[in-house]
Design goal:
Blueprint lengths: L1 H20 L4 H15 L4 H16 L4
């Protein structure tokens, strides 16, 4: 749960930064949001979640 909330917050911050810089239009952001909702309701959602969780676990074990 904490990983998904962190990922959502990171993506939200990136979207806001891109919108403020003019690199991302509001319509593009809405399309990305809708794509996320549609992906969450597909059969690919568990695979995407497992991939993100595995990546987060690998990153958390890295020592600088």
């Amino acid at each position: 749960m904490a990983v998904s909330i962190s990922a959502v917050l990171l993506l939200l911050i990136l979207a806001v930064v891109f919108m403020r810089n003019g690199s991302l239009k509001v319509s593009h952001a809405l399309v990305c949001i809708l794509l996320g909702f549609y992906l969450a309701s597909t059969s690919m959602a568990p695979t995407i979640h497992e991939g993100l969780s595995a990546t987060a676990e690998i990153v958390s074990h890295l020592n600088p």
